[in-house]
Amino acid sequence: MTLPAIREPSSVKLGLKENWQQFSLLLLINAFVGGMVGIERTVVPLIGANEFHIQSTALITSFIISFGVVKALANLVSGQLADSWGRKRVLVVGWLVGLPVPFMIVAAPNWEWVIAANVLLGLSQGFAWSMTVVMKVDLVGPKGRGLAVGLNEFAGYLAVGLTAFLTGYLASRYGLRPVPIYVGIAYALAGTLLSILLVRDTRQHVRVEAGGMSKEASPFSFREVFMLTSFKNRNLFAASQAGLVNNLNDGMSWGIFPLFFTTLGLGIERIGLLKAVYPIVWGVGQVVTGPLSDRWGRKGLIVGGMWVQAAGLLITALGGQFAWWLLGSLLLGAGTAMVYPCLIAAVSDASHPTWRARSLSVYRFWRDLGYAIGALSAGLIADRFGFSAAIVSIGILTFLSGTVYWWAAEETNKSS
Question: What residue ranges are annotated as transmembrane (predicted)?
Answer without folding.
Answer: 20-39, 59-78, 90-108, 114-135, 147-169, 181-199, 300-318, 324-344, 365-382, 388-408
